[in-house]
Amino acid sequence: MAVLSYNEILPKCIIDYNDAPYAVLSSHVFRMQKRKPVNQTKLRNIITGQVIEISFHQNETVQEAETEKMDAVYLYENGKEAWFAEAGNPKNRFSFPADAVHDQVQWLAPNSAVEVLTYEEKPVTITIPVKVDLEVKEAPPAVKGNTVSGGTKLATLSTGAKVNVPLFISAGDVIRINTDTGEYTERMEKA
Whole-prediction pTM value? Predict the structure, then answer.
């Protein structure tokens, strides 16, 4: 892959740093008085999730990480592991520790499409759609006059996730969830 100079290390880049892949979360190039320019970055290790702050100086370069994206399908979760299969090749199965991908998997129904980032041909992380449509399995009945709390109630979705929804949502409704925030966005029309 490409060699990046200090000022090319920008957000959304993935670089090799200390023999590990790091995603650049933020970068700020600045010059302090008579000194040479510095790029102050915040990096997240894609494998461990650890976030570090590193300053790259004008004479430093880094290697862009050799990552690839693979289309995959979420299969199931069995206690400690979440299982996936490569799209179009169900024999190529792989898993992630359940606690590492729980925030994403809670919004996925079986056979949902995901994107997997691979590093050195090994899956390291998943990306899910920003919005997903899920069926409400359980929703308590609305209590008349209960609008002091903003008019919401806690509903359980088909995947087991719990989310606050408006009072008019009932069991069997299909709702759209923003997976970044974990919030209800709208009720979908039944097909």
Answer: 0.73
